[in-house]
Amino acid sequence: MTSNIEEYPVRPAFIISDRTGVTAGTMAHSLLSQFPNIEFERHTIPFVDADDKVKSCIRQINHSYKTHKVRPLVFVSFMDNNYTHELETSEGLIIDLIKPFIHKLEGYLKSDSSHKVGQAHGMAGSGEQDYMHRIDAINFSMRYDDGVRIGNYHKADLILVGVSRAGKTPTSLYMALHYGLNTANYPLADDDFEKGALPDALIESRKKLFGLTIDPLQLHMIRQKRRANSEYSALSQCRREVLQAQQFYKRYRIPHVDSTAMSIEELASLIVHRMNLEVSYL
Question: Which of 29, 34, 61, 238 could disulfide-link to 92, CB 3.0 to 4.6 Å?
């Protein structure tokens, strides 16, 4: 099915949840990404847990309809079905991200669901233990970020390596937060390339290494925002570093991936799969 994007150049999309909206946002993003030729104006509204907040959402949806002259998409994740029914009185196209799956599971499991708000991110019992594990993983990733501390890598589940600004730090933190993995990262730099070898601490933990590479032009653009017109951001410097990093990956047989066109979520999922890591999920 095709769409006349000239008639509707921007399509409003609302993500409304009774909690943080993170899970709903991820699901909505996955669905909308299947329509790359359409531009979406996204609005996330979290913690909608009272009638007055639902009515406020309806006003925003209706205002968007009048502004854009097109029916807004409204992705919702509510445990209280009454809120969903209220939103159906708006001008939006309601897409329930919870109800179809809950009903199917209830039928198969022959059991009613709890319909408890925030159950997916609960803090009771094993949930509390899992939460603390993630906090510990985040602290580890911050402590061993950017090669500040080399050593104690025996405590790491994973060590990301790559040139500066290839995406190591955000990926490390994402993997700690969402997968509970102790993820360190180390920047490959001129000192390493001139020496022609990885630090001993990395070699000793070689099975935990995973490399990130990036298109040199993209790296140049990223570095320009940090240090414009410097040797650090020069395109020739970027090309040289990327090439030398790739040579390291080949020499030490380090699995790696090009991060240029990948989101952090995609990178993290791919790394978990490639490294066969045991993870917990947020």
Answer: 61
pTM reported for the whole predicted model: 0.66
pLDDT band of residue 280 (cuts 50, 70, 90) is: low
Phi-psi region of 197 (alpha: psi -120 to 50; beta: other; left: phi over 0): beta
Query: How far from the centroid of its chain's Cα atoms is residue 111's Cα?
Result: 33
User: Looking at residue 261, which CATH number applies to its domain?
Assistant: 3.40.50
- Length of the chain measured in residues: 282
Co-location of 132 and 268 in the same domain: yes
Tell me the C-alpha distance between 282 and 279, whole Å: 10
Please determine, for residue 113, whether its predicted confidence score (pLDDT) is greater than 80.
no
CB 279 within 8 A of CB 180: yes
Full domain range(s) for residue 108: 10-120
Looking at residue 87, its amino acid is L
Nearby residues of 174 by Cβ (< 8 Å), 6 or more positions away? 264, 265, 267, 268
Q: Which run of H or E residues covers position 161? A: strand 158-163
